[in-house]
Amino acid sequence: MKRKEKSEQKKTYGHMAGVILTGGSSKRYGKNKAFLEIGGIRLIDRITEDMKNIFKRVILVTNEKKGYEYLGIPLVEDLIKGLGPIGGIYTGLMSISCQAGFFVACDMPFINKHLVRYMVDIQDNHAAVVPSVANDIEPLHAIYAQSCLGPIRNLIDSKRYQVRLFYDQVPVRYVKEDEIRRFGSPSRAFLNINTPDEFATIQSLLKA
Questions:
Q1: Could you tell me if residue 2 is inside a domain?
Q2: What is the per-residue DSSP string for 120-183?
Q3: CATH number of the domain that 188 lies in?
């Protein structure tokens, strides 16, 4: 049994890419969150390593390439700058040759790799796989297929930049809370850092 679990943990996917989104300096935080350290490890290092353990191809979408070169993964600038997450998703899909990508924000330090693999395995013919807990969804911990490009481009052209606005135009597989809890706490898996106070809270939790 232990050998089987070890083999599953090493499984990497080639039909889907891992796409990390980083927006650079955060207005709410005041500096680039990707370089914050938790347990002595930068957020961007932590999430890049996690993605490499799941996907054979990993790219980083950033408008500030300087400082990320050491990661050894392709760095891609937004094709249309200033749009926020939807621009990053659009750029990511345009930049990968795979049929789909798993998109994640760089400020989510506790990605559950088992949950991510589960999401990949249940994609089937869905254009998007999106976690949903209570009334909240996680658009930046989600899978988007190439078939999302048209609806996303239509939103951009109409100057509507909320990611979830195209969900009613494509087949979406929502991952419900009971499914997510099989792998761990949703609050931990989707935890992201927006402010220095939130970062301090995370640091204190790790010390507890």
A1: no
A2: HHT-TT-SEEEEEETTEE-TTEEEEEGGGHHHHHHHHHTT---GGGGGGGS-EEEE-HHHHTTT
A3: 3.90.550.10
Predicted TM-score of the model (pTM):
0.90
**Cβ neighbours of residue 32 closer than 8 Å, sequence gap 6 or more:** 22, 24, 25, 26, 64
Residue 131's Cβ-count burial label (10 Å; 0-12, 13-18, 19+) is: buried
Residue 189 pLDDT greater than 60, yes or no: yes
Report if residue 113 sits inside a domain: yes
Domain count, the chain: 1
Got the DSSP string for 168-189?
Answer: GGS-EEEE-HHHHTTTS-HHHH
* pLDDT tens column, 111-140: 999 999 999 999 999 999 999 999 899 999
Alpha-carbon span 164 to 166, nearest angstrom: 5
> For residue 37, is it within any domain?
yes
Please provide the size of the chain in residues. Answer: 208
- For residues 68-94, give the mean pLDDT: 96
Question: CA-based angle 144:74:186, to the nearest 5?
Answer: 40
Are the beta carbons of 35 and 46 closer than 8 angstroms?
no
Please give the distance of CA 91 from its chain centroid, rounded to a whole number: 14
Kindly report the number of other CB atoms within 10 A of residue 146's CB atom. Answer: 15
Nearest to 112 by CA among 181, 65, 176: 181
Q: Does residue 5 sit within a domain?
A: no
Domain span at residue 19 reads 10-207
